[in-house]
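Example record for the data management plan.
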Amino acid sequence: MLSQQESSRKDPDSDREVFRGPGSMVLSWAWLLVAVIILVDLAVQGRDHAAAVTAALVVVVSGIVYACAWRPRIVADSGGITIANPLRDHRVPWSAVAKVDVVNAVRVHCVPAPGTSRAKVIYSWAVQSSPRSARKASLRAERGGQRPRLSPRPRSLGPPPGSVPRYGEMPDSAKEALDRSSTEFTAGRLAERAQHARQAAATAAGPRPDGEPSPGTLPDGDRAGAPAHDARPDGEPGAASPAMAQAGAGQVVVRWAWPAIAAMLVPVVLFLVVLLV
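Corresponding structural encoding:
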């Protein structure tokens, strides 16, 4: 997974970035170590039916950990976003991305497909927000919405906003980036890349003779990365504009993740066979 500083130096139009939750990676490596220790111990000392059942159970858990913890990720490249979940993969072209936000997990809002009025919302299994991170984000949003102080800024709080930091002090933008959670950072990067892709498409298409916006241009209210409170009161994404429908020429592709499904089903069948023999 790319760090925030490394990712910020990438070209948002062409580089491939992979986003994964740090907790799932830690869980995967920890279970791999435990599974190897158990299997080695069983191979050395186990010679009975119980050892075979235990070994099969370890393989079952390993398949589940692979499918649910190791495999899920979000991949952003020049063509769009690939959201790999345990059972299915979603490929969303940049032209089909309407908005990216965070509600317990990174969500990608897609523009409605031709002939439909309901927009598809894809949740990422890989990058999720813990309740603690959600509370911190809510507190930061509340602080950002407070009215400015009328009294002079105390010296103990550092230099006023916009001033040049002294030697050894971090700029406000760097402090804000470090204070964000990995979930917020991922959503921000995906929204930034979607905006760059739309701008590139609008530039390539050029102005239309009739004065209407080009297919790659979206109104300000429909930009990717808009906060979650832009949704309608019933919880669904806001209605798509005609420009968004035109931008959705690229369709979302959904396919089953057969390797992950096999990694979970085959060990279960093997475990039942060993258990019943």
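Summary line stored alongside the record: The radius of gyration is 24 Å.
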